[in-house]
Design goal:
The structure is a single chain. It contains 1 helix and 14 strands, in the order E-E-E-H-E-E-E-E-E-E-E-E-E-E-E. The protein has 163 residues and is mainly β. It has a single domain, classed as Jelly Rolls. The protein starts with 5 loop residues before the first strand and ends in a 9-residue tail after the last strand.
C-alpha cells in the first residue's frame, strides 16, 4: 500500500432487526492519527460510473465507506522523487464487508462503481470544502499518464479483474 493509505474493517452488530455499525470514531487513532473529521458527505453513483482523477494539495484526507453496492477505489502516486512514484493501489470496497478506506489527498485518486447496482458511499474529510477556493486538481479519468504499476501500461478502469 502507498504510505498513508489504510483500510480498517468495521464491525457489524447484527440482530433480528438488521445491523448497526459505527463507521467513524474520534478515538480510532490507528486510522485517524492526528486528523479530525470536519465534514461528512454522501455520493451516489450508477453502475459503471467512474469519478477520477483528482487530488488535494492542501492536506485533505478522504475516508470512504461504501454503504451500498460495490466500488473500486484507486490511489496513484506521481510525486517527483517519491520512492512509490508510479505505484497504484486498487481497493475493492463493498457494503458486504464494511471498511473505512483512508486516502491521503496528495495522491491522485478516484472511484468506479462496479457490479450491477448503484453504490452509495459516505465519505469523511478533515478539511471543509471551500467552493470559492476548492482544494482540487483534476485530470481525465482515462489519462494515459496514470500507469498501472503492475503492467506499465495506462491504467484501465474497465479492465476485468481476472485478466
Amino acid at each position: 500500500m502507498l504510505p498513508g493509505v489504510k483500510i480498517q474493517d468495521l464491525k457489524k452488530n447484527v440482530d433480528e432487526r438488521g445491523f448497526f455499525a459505527e463507521i467513524m470514531r474520534q478515538d480510532w487513532k490507528d486510522l485517524l492519527g492526528d486528523d479530525t473529521v470536519v465534514q461528512a458527505n454522501l455520493s451516489y453513483s450508477f453502475p459503471g460510473i467512474i469519478r477520477a482523477w483528482h487530488r488535494h494539495n492542501q492536506g485533505q484526507i478522504d475516508y470512504f465507506v461504501v454503504v451500498s453496492g460495490s466500488m473500486k477505489i484507486c490511489a496513484f502516486d506521481d510525486t517527483q522523487g517519491s520512492p512509490t512514484r508510479g505505484q497504484l493501489d486498487e481497493i475493492v470496497a463493498s457494503a458486504e464487508k464494511l471498511q473505512v478506506v483512508r486516502i491521503p489527498g496528495h495522491y491522485w485518486h478516484g472511484t468506479k462503481t462496479i457490479g450491477d447496482k448503484p453504490s452509495l458511499t459516505a465519505y469523511f474529510v478533515n478539511r471543509l470544502y471551500d467552493l470559492k477556493d476548492p482544494d482540487e486538481d483534476r485530470r481525465p479519468w482515462n489519462d494515459p499518464s496514470v500507469s498501472d504499476g503492475r503492467t506499465s501500461k495506462p491504467y484501465d478502469w474497465n479492465k476485468p479483474p481476472h485478466k
